[in-house]
Write a structure and sequence with these properties.
The complex is a heterodimer of chains A (about 200) and B (about 250). With about 200 residues, chain A is an alpha/beta fold. Chain A has six helices and 13 strands. In chain A, strands 2-1-3-4-13-12-11-8-9 form a nine-stranded mixed beta sheet. With about 250 residues, chain B is of the alpha/beta class. Classes of the chains: A alpha/beta (about 200), B alpha/beta (about 250).
Chain lengths: ~200, ~250
């Protein structure tokens, strides 16, 4: 039985993530309590919203500490989704500079319009191209469409942390991973079959 | 490449889903849950669920209903109707909405758009603009489910709410809605050219060709429709194949 703690830090759509985890065979616990996070085999850091609010909420609830213990020290696998992925960075630049969790070196900056009709936010279905072997994308065809809704993106310090890229605004990093820490800019819980495969893969890592 | 989205609109009125003509003459079209399940199975790109009587009945969104629907909805879900506060948005997101649409309040209290964007990010706020065409060819935005004329130009309104932090515009032609006589391409184009955020065209789709028209000439990022799926044999999958065969990127 895979107990999955879905971290509730007051930032958005937690229910959908819980339902998707359930459909994928995990046992979701939507929680803001350190004890629940401490006893989970997998942790999902979801999130809709602004970077500074996300970090402030994690800190106010002292969740950064328990996450650090479980993830950075004990190696419990964590998946950050959307804002949850961005918070893994060293720092974010949404509404000024904010320090992130710093588990994967990099910065979060606003997407810059590229050529043609590139509107921001980047909303809708777009392709994800895995650029290296990763358990997260096992069984998923190259260039499969996933659902995105975001205005900021992750710039990795080290290219080896980049798992996948997506062609928009000149191309951006749509999945990252280092050890047992993963992040996806898209919403697997809203990406139907392909999204569920990513979640199943995460439950299996 | 970012795909053109094919979206179904679900209009909710008290007891179930309805579809009208010109924001009037509502017909029942079935249960909301059934629709969500069917569209889920058919891999619709996105759903827009609008509680069209909430504002005029001065009530908050039906969170319990949205909670139930969202539990079965494994595709992006935008929810609107009766949203007047940041707390409404927080609670809708909490029960499973991905984006929240505001229409009347975006005009009566534009500051709400900014407050929502500041708190939850631009990407989760959709401003829905219902517009009527005047006899001189200009357009006027309406609120309260199309019943209150604002005197505002929809393109200017879209431009203003973008500056306040709106992440997307859903633009609906009141008189085309439900007629299946084609989108108001001119209205969509004016709004699309006024903003740099995505625009969803709505109101009037009767054929796949209408979708092509509003994407290529109206510059829409997404096409929303309801009647075409309720009252004809046309399907979202066929719509996407039709678009693909004409050179548009869609998700298949």
């Amino acid at each position: 039985m895979t107990r999955v703690a879905i971290v509730d830090y007051g930032m958005g759509n937690l229910d959908s993530v819980a339902r998707a985890v359930e459909e994928c065979g995990g046992v979701p616990v939507v929680t803001g309590r350190a004890a629940d996070i401490g006893s989970a085999n997998r942790i999902i850091l979801p999130g809709v919203g602004a970077f500074p609010d996300g970090m402030r909420n994690l800190k106010e609830r002292s969740l950064d500490k328990i996450l650090h213990e479980q993830v950075a020290e004990k190696g419990i696998p964590l998946l950050g989704i959307c804002l949850g992925m961005q918070l893994l960075a060293t720092r974010g630049w949404e509404g000024g500079e904010t320090e992130g969790l710093g588990w994967i070196g990099g910065e979060v900056r606003r997407l810059q319009p590229g050529e043609g009709n590139t509107r921001i936010p980047h909303v809708g279905w777009n392709e994800v191209f895995a650029i290296r072997e990763s358990p997260l994308f096992r069984g998923i065809p190259e260039g499969k469409d996933f659902y995105f809704v975001h205005s900021y993106h992750f710039l990795c310090d080290d290219d080896r942390d980049v798992l996948a890229r997506t062609p928009y605004c000149g191309g951006f990093v749509s999945a990252i991973g280092r050890g047992s820490v993963f992040g996806v800019q898209f919403h697997p819980e809203k990406s139907q079959r392909a999204g569920f495969q990513v979640l199943r893969n995460f439950l299996g890592v | 490449m970012l795909k053109i989205r094919v979206i179904a609109t679900l209009l909710y009125k008290g007891w179930g889903l309805v579809k009208g003509v010109g924001f009037d003459s509502w017909r029942r079209t079935g249960s909301a849950m059934q629709a969500v399940k069917v569209y889920n199975m058919r891999e619709m790109d996105e759903l827009v669920f609008l509680d069209i009587t909430a504002t005029n009945e001065r009530r908050r969104p039906d969170f319990a209903l949205v909670d139930e629907l969202a539990d079965e909805c494994f595709m992006p879900l935008t929810v609107g109707g009766g949203v007047t506060t940041v707390d409404d948005v927080r609670d809708l997101l909490r029960v499973g909405a991905d984006k929240v649409a505001v229409n009347t309040t975006a005009v009566t209290d534009p500051g709400l758009v900014r407050r929502i964007a500041d708190r939850f990010g631009s990407q989760c706020i959709v401003v829905s603009i219902d517009a009527r065409r005047r006899s001189d060819g200009t357009y006027e935005a309406c609120t309260n489910s199309g019943t209150v004329a604002t005197g505002r130009d929809p393109a200017e309104l879209a431009y203003e709410v973008e500056a306040l932090g709106a992440g997307e515009i859903l633009v609906t032609s009141v008189e085309r809605d439900g007629t299946m006589s084609g989108y108001d391409v001119e209205l969509t184009r004016r709004v699309s050219e006024a903003v740099s955020i995505p625009v969803i065209a709505s109101g009037g789709a009767g054929s796949y060709g209408d979708m092509v028209h509003v994407i290529s000439e109206g510059k829409a990022s997404a096409v929303a429709s309801a009647s075409i799926y309720h009252f004809t044999q046309q399907t979202p999958l066929e719509a996407k194949r039709y678009l693909r065969d004409r050179g548009f990127a869609v998700r298949l």
